[in-house]
Amino acid sequence: MSVPELVDQATAYVKQLQKRLGEYKEMKVQLEKERSEMRSKMIPPVLYMRDLGSNLEVHLITGLNMEFALSHFISILHEEGAEIISATCHHSGDRAIYTILSQAIYPRIGIATSSVQQRLKSLIS
After folding, report:
1. DSSP 3-state assignment of 16?
2. Is the pTM of this model over 0.70?
3. Coiled-coil regions in this chain (predicted)?
């Protein structure tokens, strides 16, 4: 083979490698996207409640794609005798973290924590 033929062959080979590299990069991006979607679907919701006397702190951790309305949580708390002091939502990676701080409307009666927990768990499952 002559030198020009070898150069042409090497050039064609480099172009072929560049094309395959581009395809692999696209495939990598697609796989990472699918993995992220799959991980967020697989995250089971976690409910944590802390009874602070006449106050109640509720934490919920979910995947970003979970169909969830914070208003349902707030309604349940109101029905169980709690007044909402603050409610926040933070996104961290593929998770959403909700924090609700409430206090008893009537401090002598308090908040029925076990009833609240049961109702909130049934809402997220």
Report:
1. helix
2. no
3. 7-41
